[in-house]
Every structure is written in structure tokens, then in C-alpha cells.
Amino acid sequence: MNIYPTYTIGAVFVVGVVQSILVWLALSAAILKLDSTRAFKDLARIGLAVMLAAWFGFIFTLSQSDTQLALTASGGHGRVLLALFAPALASLLLLGSHTVRTILDKIPQHQLIGFQGMRTVGFIFLPLTDMGFVSSSFGVAAGIGDVIVGVFALYAAYTLLRGRPGGRYIAIAANVIGLLDAALALTLGLFVVPAESFAPHIVTRIMFVPSYVVAVFLVAHIYSLRGLILGVGEARNSKPLRSYSG
User: Across 141-203, where does the E strand assignment appear?
Assistant: First the structure.
């Protein structure tokens, strides 16, 4: 197996930066719509930026260090899963906050699901597989799956933005498919495909992908599904699929 191409590090770094900026812009715009003081809004936006930067920096630094926080490390599976699901779990706990729910409700649904369009960059797994850097058992499924999910998400966002009939259900389907695709890719990468099937050190160096990039996508899926089911998030023709209180 060939040594992994070093440009993959730069690629995943750029994807993570763009992803973080988009998350901050969406949440920041929602925060500005709150019926609160300007000082609170500024503090919340700064706090959000610091939190995203700290999370991003911590995971990326670990992935490029010799800590071996990755699949090839002893007990690495557990650490990667912890890094992956800790923020997702935290996001669910944050839904207990009325302020957080109010902020999320002010994010347009077409933006939440459209954000998943970034997953089309997962096509990079296909050339990496062709060049022998990634196992075909993982790379083909991950690459094709990401492209399908990303394109479907953009279509779902378009139907919501245009207020097309059935747009709500299309968006829900896009979220469910996105979650299933992520679960499949993680299962293959973490438990099915042997680490020896990847180029030396590539798993360690790009563990940033599942631990940050995928984690952010999962959180966005959770928030989007919540909004779609409740009929919030400024989606056109929105009527909740069920009542909600709290």
C-alpha cells in the first residue's frame, strides 16, 4: 500500500474550516434575530466562534500529532467514537435550553439541509481508492454515498426554498439517508475494513474527518430533523408533523 498523499491533510483542513465558517454564519444570523440585548448577542456570537475554533483546533491537532488517536491505536476505536458522539450527545442536551431551541428555530430549514451539500466533497475517496491509498471496500461506498447524500440534500433544500409540495418529506428523507450513509461509512471504516487496507498513517492523519467533519454533519442532521418534524425553522408551507411543548 502506498504512503498517503500529504495534500489530503490540507484538503480536510480546508473542508473543516469552510464547514465551521458556515455553521458560525448560520447560527450567528439566528442569534441576531433574538429578542435580546445587543451585548448578549455579541457575547453569544463570540462564544460560539471560540467554541468552534477550540473544537476544531483540538481535534485537528490531535489528528496530526503522534498521539495516535485513530483506528490503528490501541483502543483507538473507542476514542474516535467518543470524539464523534460526544458533541452529538451534547447537541441533544442543548435542546433542553429554551434559548438554544429559539436560535435553532430561526435558522431557515433550507439552510440546515442544504448544508449537507458539502458532503459532495466526499468524492475525494474515489480517486484516493483508485490510487491505492484507501481500501476499495471503504472508499467506493464512502465516496459514492457522500455524493448521493450531498446532491439529494441540495435538491431537498431547493424544494423547501421554493415551497414545493412534499418538500418537508423530501428533506426528512434526505436527513435519514444522510444519517444511514454516515453510519455505514463509520461501520466500514471503524470495524469492518482492516487498517492494513489503508495507506500507512492515513487513518491516523485524517481521523479529523470522522471526529469533526462527520460529527458536525450529524449534529446538523439532528437539528434539521427536529425542525422538520416540529414545523419550525422558517420552512415555507410549514405545519408541524406533531405537536411540541417545552
Answer: none
- Average pLDDT (195-199) is 68
Q: What is the spatial distance between Cα 85 and Cα 219, in angstroms, rounded to a whole number? A: 9
Over residues 62-88, mean pLDDT: 58
Does 129 fall in a domain? yes
Closest of 108, 224, 129 to residue 177, by C-alpha: 224
Determine, yes or no, domain membership for 2.
no
What total number of domains does the chain contain?
1
Domain carrying residue 103: 7-230
Mean pLDDT lowest for which of 9-23, 31-45, 48-62, 194-208?
Answer: 194-208
Q: At what angle do helices 214-230 and 167-187 cross, to 10 degrees?
A: 150
- What are the C-alpha distances in Å from 125 to residues 137, 181, 183? 11, 14, 16
**pTM beyond 0.85:** no
Burial of residue 19 (CB within 10 Å: 0-12, 13-18, 19+) is buried
Residue type, 193: V
Could you tell me if residue 68 is inside a domain? yes
Rounded to whole angstroms, the Cα distance separating 55 from 150 reads 24
Q: Is residue 120 part of a domain?
A: yes
Residue type, 240: P
For 7, half-sphere exposure in the C-beta direction (CA atoms, 13 angstrom radius) is: 3
Mean pLDDT, the chain, rounded, equals 82
